[in-house]
Structures are given as structure tokens and as C-alpha cells.
Amino acid sequence: MNKIKQLGNNAVFADTPSKAVLEKVKNPHSDKLYVARFSAPEFTSLCPVTGQPDFADIHIEYIADNFCVELKALKNYFWSYRNEGAFHEAVTNKILDDLVEVMNPRFIRLKAIFNVRGGVYTNIECEHRKNGWKPREVVSL
Questions:
Q1: Beta carbons within 10 angstroms of residue 107's beta carbon
Q2: Per annotation, catalytic residue among 47, 65, 98, 126
Q3: Which of 9, 40, 106, 134 is the 20 to 30 A CA-CA neighbour of 95?
Q4: Predicted confidence (pLDDT) per residue in 11-37, tens digit
């Protein structure tokens, strides 16, 4: 752990990210259907072949049921991938699976737009519907 001054006070921050745990919060409006959308343009992981960093813009949209994802935990969860090797398809689906496990949403879609590497752009999109639940309309990302 390193110590720094933050706003005149001592602050401590981690040298490296540790595997973060996603947390949930009670949905304040579980009686309503609404779409929550998040974007995380600074996602990084490592190429499992070369060890070079991969950068992605992660987009999430979901229709909650009883729980929502806690955003600070989501931010730390994303940061924890910074030193992990993962193929684009694997990491995208792992994030979706983890979000489904924590929230059990009615619907969730995750899109990962990876920056160019070796002249190739990669976009991975995956989704989950609770018990075959079909939203009337979910606008595409």
C-alpha cells in the first residue's frame, strides 16, 4: 500500500488491483420496468498470449428485478481485470455471468468494444434473459 496526500489528508491506495467482489443493492423501484445503462470506457485486461494490454469500452444495459449492481463495486471489479490475461470473448462472457449471478436481472446485455490490436477490432455482445423473459423493447446499445 502506498500513502499519498489527498485533499490535504493522508490517503492509502493499493499498489495493484485485487480481485474485487461485485455487490448488489436493493432495487428502489422493483415495481417498475426501467433500463439502467452504464459505460466503462477504461476497461483493461491483458492478452493471454502476448501479455500486452487490451483496452475496451464496456457497455451494460439491464432491466433489474429485485437488485441492482452497486457502482463503486462494479468499478473496482473492472479494475481487478487490469493484470489478468483473458481472451476478449471469455472476459466479456465472464463479466456477464458474474453480473447475472449477483443481480439476477430480468434482462441484461453487455457489449465490449475492444481497441484495435494487430489491425483487428473486436466487438463482443452477449445477453441474458431471466426465465425467457422478453422485454417489450430494449433499445440496442
A1: 19
A2: 47
A3: 134
A4: 555 566 556 789 999 999 999 999 999
- Residue 47 designated active-site: yes
Residue with cell 471469455: 90
pLDDT of 11: 58
**Cβ neighbours, 10 Å, residue 67:** 16
Q: Is 68 a catalytic residue?
A: no
Tell me the average pLDDT across 73-98. Answer: 95
Active-site hit among 15, 54, 65, 126: 54
pLDDT of 131: 81
